[in-house]
Amino acid sequence: MKLLNSISFVLSFASLTLAQWGGFGGFGDFGGYNNNNNNGGGVAVSGDTVKIMPVGDSITFGEGERGGYRKYLYSALTQKGYKIDMVGPEGSNSASANGIQYDDNNAGYSGFQIKEIPGWGQQQGGEGSLYNKLKSKNAVKQSQPDIILLIIGTNDMTANRSMDACANDLRALLDYMLADMPANSIIFMGSIPEFTAYGGNAQRIANYNGTVKKVADEYANKGKNVRFADVHGCLNGMSDIGSDRLHPSGNGYKKIGNFWAGVIDEYLQSIKNDSNNGKEDETGNGQEELSACSSNITRQGYKCCSKNCVVVYTDNDGTWGVENEEWCGCSTGNSNVCVGAQGYPCCKSTKQVYYTDDDGSWGIEDGDWCIIRN
Predict the structure, then answer these.
(1) pTM of the model
(2) Model confidence at 13, in pLDDT bands (50, 70, 90)?
(3) Domain definitions of the chain by residue range
(4) What interhelical angle do 68-79 and 250-282 show, nearest 10?
(5) Which of 69, 123, 239, 347 qualifies as a cystine partner to 363, CB 3.0-4.6 A?
(6) Where is the CBM10 domain (predicted)?
């Protein structure tokens, strides 16, 4: 394994408890993404305003209910004591709906696809390209979000876009956003809700959501700050979709807002806890006993990780973690990981399979993805 002796991980991300960040309430294994466009963004551990940019199509806009999930998200986070600034080129700084006062700024565009689809324009119901719209408005660079919440793809499904084409379009959109957002920021890629209008069917939606997860994991494994979040999983199928059989009902929007609030709260709390641990390490306290690791790792000049190591990468040399902004070797006896699962935890008791891919069978415990042992 060829690795740099020191990785330029942001301190806030360097030793996150990666095994806690799955898909349902979390987001895959972590690696600090740095670009050359760090304009001072990134979330501090406490007290600072958190800039959240909701991005997507009519579900982000809030078709059928003013403010959609965004008002519930804003309300839930502010009630937890966070200072929230919703950002984006649309909406206003203050709005009210259903008795909720909220910041209405967003980047939600009804009818939009990921990118422009040749031969499928407004005459077929499509309104445009989210990729082109964001670029034309210089939306990400102007907003400088700490967190982007992305839900996109419903209109690509109604246009019968192939999964490979969707994956490529998602990569182009991610590349654009990552290049223009602050280096410490993160994108959460949400799965799309169920729908039956315009030819929507459960299998095709499941295939698309699997594609979203695949692309998100692909970027996360490259050290990009991109994570999958299972919005679809927080809803009760078509029971939470409105009478148009396409957009969430009021209850569905509320569930999505509360889901995102939980995702963001867990993420911010993890940063806060990690910062506190980092301060202890700087003073010589809080050091953990080192665990035995593969000799194939130590002979390359890398150290063994502490006992609370979390696996973020596995190869023929052994299992790897990151501590103090450097790669280190994890003990193969670490009971909190499933080898090959890229840092996700093993399921403690559940045997109910929600998703299967090349890594194995995935279950959910305590709101997080986990790997079911064979």
Answers:
(1) 0.65
(2) very low
(3) 33-273, 289-371
(4) 40
(5) 347
(6) 292-331, 337-373
